[in-house]
Amino acid sequence: MIEPGQGTGRSQRGITGLETAIILIAFVVVASVFAFTVLSTGIFTSEKSKETVHAALQEARSTLEPRGSVTAFRARYGVGATTETVFKVSLVVAQSVSGEPIDLTPPYSADGLTTDPDVVSGAQYRTVITYSDTRQHISDVPWTVNWLGFTNGDNVLDQGEKAEISLWLLDRLNGVTSPDSDNSLGIMDGSGGGGGTGGIASTSTVLGVNDKFVVEVQPPTGAVLTLERTLPGRLTRVIDLK
To answer: Quick one: which of 50, 183, 193, 229 could link to 241 by a disulfide (CB 3.0–4.6 Å)?
Structure first.
């Protein structure tokens, strides 16, 4: 028998209140650090998502859209004016949705709808227009702008404004002898051709009947406006390409 007050030969240990408190405090600290990390990550992710949404909205608000038809104009090109082609393509653009203004400062100016354009000295244009067909690609085609209807007088496309952009496809230094048999579409101003430097210079690569071409208007912000058109089987002085 075991006498009262005597042990069983086994030692018994316990933990004090202080040790318990230390363990609890350690758990609380670890949990707090983990919670802070999770919250910080969540806030950071939320801010990044907000920035992405705002950036997408900014892109959408700066997108151009065509208004009306694309119009091509006929010319006779080369020595003797024997090659019938298109010297200018015009399109009307506006903002697709209410949003940010779009800079349409042009690199060229024209005195009229059919005159030979002139380089704007020192023009800091931000919108670039490219032209492509099956024979060539022009990464920066000469273009001018004509404002239609209401305008505030600057070169920035605001909500409610419309701009007619004209692409001058032929190289002005290679000479358009006669724009047409009817001089009402004359583009000569005594300085040479009916386009801009950097346009199409060879009669072997100018646009002809049934040719397909692609125009891309690349604003400084927003999506690229891409237009693909095909010329009809007969070229008239003014061609509505729909």
So the answer is: 229
> Mind listing the pLDDT tens digit for each residue in 129-156?
999 999 999 999 999 999 998 888 899 9
Question: 91 pairs with which residues across the strands?
Answer: 165
Span 205-217, average pLDDT: 94
Do residues 149 and 237 lie in contact, with contact meaning Cβ atoms separated by under 8 Å?
Answer: no
pTM over 0.85: no
Q: Count the alpha carbons within 13 Å of 183 in the hemisphere toward its beta carbon.
A: 3
87-99 residue pLDDT tens: 899 999 998 776 6
Spatial neighbors of 107 by CB under 8 A, at least 6 apart, are 119, 120, 123, 125, 140, 142, 143, 196
Angle CA(191)–CA(239)–CA(197) in degrees, nearest 5? 30
- Please choose, from the candidates 66, 189, 36, 219, the residue with its C-alpha nearest in 3D space to the C-alpha of residue 118: 189
Number of residues written out for the chain: 242
Contact (CB, 8 A) for 214 and 194:
no
* Percent of the chain that is helix, strand, coil (3-state, to 5): 20, 30, 50
CB count within 10 Å of CB 161 equals 20
Residue from 110, 64, 114 nearest 87 by CA: 114
CA-based nearest residue to 78, from 238, 157, 211, 194: 194
Residues facing residue 167 across a β-bridge: 89, 143
